[in-house]
Amino acid sequence: MLRWIRQQLGFDPPHQSDTRTVYVANRFPEHGHYIPQRFADNRIISSKYTIWNFVPKNLFEQFRRIANFYFLIIFLVQLMIDTPTSPVTSGLPLFFVITVTAIKQGYEDWLRHKADNEVNGAPVFVVRSGSLVQTRSKNIRVGDIVRVAKDETFPADLVLLSSDRADGTCHITTASLDGETNLKTHFSVPETSVCQSVSQLEALHAVVECQQPEADLYRFVGRVTITQQGEEIVRPLGPENLLLRGARLKNTKEIFGVAVYTGMESKMALNYKCKSQKRSAVEKSMNSFLIIYLVILLSEAILSTILKYAWQSEDKWNEPFYNQKTEQERNSSPILQFISDFLAFLVLYNFIIPISLYVTVEMQKFLGSFFIGWDMDLYHEESNQKAQVNTSDLNEELGQVEYLFTDKTGTLTENEMQFRECSINGIKYREMNGKLVPEGMTGDSPSGSSPQLITEELLFLKAVSLCHTVQISYNKSESWLGGDPFSHTNSFSFSHMEYYASSPDEKALVEGTKRIGVAFTGCSGDTMEINTFGKSEKYKLLHVLEFDPNRRRMSVILQTPSGGKVIFTKGAESAVLPFATTGEIEKTRLHVDEFALKGLRTLVVACRHFSPEEYIAVNKRLTFARTALQRREEKLQQAFAYIENNLHVLGATGVEDKLQDKVPETIEVLRLAGIKVWVLTGDKHETAVSVSLSCGHFHRTMNILELLQQRSDNECAEQLRRLARRIKEDHVIQHGLVVDGASLSLALREHEKLFMEVCKSCSAVLCCRMAPLQKAKVVRLLKTSPEKPITLAVGDGANDVSMIQEAHVGIGIMGKEGRQAVRNSDYAIARFKFLAKLLLVHGHFYYIRIATLVQYFFYKNVCFITPQFLYQFFCLFSQQTLYDSVYLTLYNICFTSLPILVYSLFEQLVHPDILQAKPGLYRDISKNSLLSFWTFLYWTALGFTHAFAFFFGSYLLMGEDTSLMSNGQMLRANRQLMFGNWTFGTLVFTVMVITVTLKLALETQFWTWMNHFVTWGSIAFYFIFSLFYGGIIWPFLHTQDMYFVFVQLLSCGSAWFAIVIIVLTCLFPEVMKKVLYRHLCPTSTQKSQMYSNRVVIGDDFALQPLSRAKGQLGKIRWSRVRVQSAQNMTLLKPSGAQGRTIGTC
């Protein structure tokens, strides 16, 4: 029990060794000294709380917030000492905030519990005691043999033992793990693949040794030892043998596998990692403002305490009749009495800290995030994908972006590849109508029409059609599955085949060779078949040297039909050509550069023929490296480097990746909005520059600077200095910088400051040949620079995840490279073009809404509590409260909460179409301008000004005058009854509620029926509640101070006069300020507001689509433009140009 508790607290990790030993079917050794390892059960737990720890854990997390903790302290102080206000005034709002948050978090966790129970209770079949037994998923143990049928998901991480196929292979999809929908082939070792029945599996004696659980989905190191007739056979295990929990079985009737990782130790569960918490600039400003208001609160409390003792030190003020001290108070310690008074004042003024601010901000972010998903302009009809919000905490940050980092492939481009050109033996070819046509010839020429290819061309095409990991799906019947996998070639044509590949490049290349006449037709076990112009050829697959980002190449070792051994290699030219010794190396390099200048993605293809002795050495090295349990990756890299050498260059391929729709327009709009765009890509320099030019990232008139192929720190530093001097000397408006990965590593090592100076002077930066971690480093470099700009990263692949997580805001593109980027992003969109509206419209709206919300909250709380502070000067600092405790409690919860919440959900300073048409408006709100210190100071000063007007206006208009009763008589006899403490406080409170509500109404530009309802409804609710509250004697209240006060107040004509005068006095200067500013020195936003109120149709009106023209005319009707005669109508044009008259409208 103690060990379990230590494990839960993280003090005692359950696994001490680097490897785990799994006995298949839990057939443990019979010798007595064996101690079984302890493994996790198969329950998935994604929930945060249990029924036992919900209350303490949730309270602990909520009270970590400074505002909640502060109000808890105030509440405890009210309980412990005699304070002027009831503990309910602090306890009820605190209880409300804590309860609402707890209910929200509890409901979300209940949904997680429900989902967990559904997964853990799913039925599964396991082999136990010689039979197939049905049980629940949570009961699977490490070592159990599990049966999984077609289209079922794997309930744990399983090592494949056998399948219904003779070769022991199966096909799976990992869409739920990484989004890749292609079929992947997994293999079993030959010794276990024959065990296809329960009885054979029960008799199997095998032990799996593997690494301890880790989160990497694509890494698995292990080996299996099978005992057959007293002999131990050892086979290596890798990722191709592991079936991951959450993946789905396809095109295979059933499989058997042994569970090696279960429950929260499965790779899927280990990827449930919590992303680092990102905090928006608004939240940081809000916390800074809270600290300032805390200082104001402490200052007011200290000043009040000091003044109380200073005034009471005079004889004439000492112990007035209404504040006589008790005997205990006279005998108490002066220091304790001072502390007690200070705490009492602290309680009295504590509402200057807005406790409901946090819960209102949370509700605004949560509810506001739905607008992104509901926006049909962000919906991609072709893929049926809408924008999604993974975190709502950063909504307003979308309106503050200064630097945008984007991937190229799949983000700016479609990631739909088409084979276009190739270079074979130093000759360039292009594909035309399914034929390879040499450069300079047409597809109709006799030499181009012949399907006969020379030996070099044929070998190149065979290499391309064999060097891959492509899978095939056949649209016809699957009846051939389990039989001869190549029988389909006799039954129907190749047109029924569909290729699936993890890389779009591979799929495009295999489809290209198929169109030319060399078709990959299938793979069965270790046999690959191609069809060369109608002739079938079978190759034995001996080894696959998998692609990895460091080598940037992949290889296959095959046995040819004639019995020879050959390796085919393909990869980036920088990863293949340096290891080539023969072939047209220089011509191929030249052709690769030419392809790249056209924007094509390039790969170099090479081969090497092994002699029997060479192959024996190669096979020995690979087998040794693959069976190693320790440092397997390092040993494999050494083996790959030994094998992929002395290559013969066959040629190169050029694949086209089309730009996405409206990418150039989007980049230009973002640039006009003041956002600097950086492209970070793994492509080679020439390809990246070509795509940057075509997408508008680089302009033709831009001065392109280069930091490429730097080999030393000194060389890099000198080049950076030359670039810096060139930028200063050149009188070019815009510069662009191109930097490669190697030079970037040198620049970031010791010359960060100089590199950043050069980058910031450039309007566009292109980083090519970038590794994933380098992308994150570049983002971090900008993010942590002295200016601390807000960064946004957008990408679509797993290699973009680190960049997305590093940036302030991460956006995933729902592309074809899986869903890892989407899963790790803050927001996800289907296309790059949607970024414009997401930032310029949604970002703009979210920021202005929450900026006003935060400052309005502080403003209305200053208005609320300052009269309480001023009142102490008139009651000799006796800590008498000005407002009734019910008003104190409900001010932030009921009377003023809904208008600002609705405002923060629907406010629009400018119409969305104008925001997109004028991207420069985005600059107006950049650098957190609406929450600057001076703006905060203005709202705070305004709050104090209005508070003084509320208090002294009420005092001057009502306090020193007689009261006008309903019968019109001037009665002094009723003065004390009519105008006492509670009447004065209620008058101040009434003026305050009306003024702060109308102040928000003045700030509102976009009125909906909900705004009208909550604005006027809040004021009406206050009056109705006050009449109801003061019109009844409530038996459960110990005092009836407010009985008939509000009715008596409203029956007084001078009270109504005072309310109107004070409200007008407070708001009239605000109205005048807005009018004068709008007409004398309007901002860009205000100009756009006036612009959007007019109907503007340009000269291209007649050329617009009918639907858009109808929309324009619809706006004319909406603006109530009356046309007396439809024969002639003048349409306004922008910039003061003359209107255009059209004959008929």
UniProtKB/TrEMBL annotation:
Which protein are we looking at? Phospholipid-transporting ATPase
Supply the enzyme class, top level. Answer: translocase
* Domain P-type ATPase C-terminal intervals: 822-1083
Per UniProt, ATP binds at 407-409, 506, 547, 570, 601, 681-683, 769, 775, 799-800
Keywords from the UniProt entry: ATP-binding, Magnesium, Membrane, Metal-binding, Nucleotide-binding, Translocase, Transmembrane, Transmembrane helix
Assigned EC number: 7.6.2.1
Identify the residues that the record assigns to the P-type ATPase N-terminal domain, covering every copy.
36-90
* GO-annotated biological processes: phospholipid translocation
Annotated catalysed reactions: ATP + H2O + phospholipidSide 1 = ADP + phosphate + phospholipidSide 2
Record's PANTHER family? PHOSPHOLIPID-TRANSPORTING ATPASE IF (PTHR24092:SF57), PROBABLE PHOSPHOLIPID-TRANSPORTING ATPASE (PTHR24092)
Entry annotation: catalytic residues: 407 (4-aspartylphosphate intermediate)
Cofactor dependence: Mg(2+)
The residue ranges crossing the membrane are 66-81, 288-311, 342-361, 886-906, 936-958, 978-1001, 1013-1037, 1043-1068
Gene Ontology MF, one = ATP hydrolysis activity
Boundaries of every P-type ATPase A domain copy: 124-184
What is the first-listed, main subcellular location in coarse terms?
Answer: membrane
Residues recorded as binding Mg(2+), renumbered to this chain, are: 407, 409, 796, 800
Name the family the entry cites.
Belongs to the cation transport ATPase (P-type) (TC 3.A.3) family. Type IV subfamily.
Query: What is its membrane topology?
Result: Multi-pass membrane protein
Its lineage opens with: Eukaryota, Metazoa, Chordata, Craniata, Vertebrata
This protein's GO CC annotations? endoplasmic reticulum; plasma membrane; recycling endosome
Localisation:
Endomembrane system; Membrane
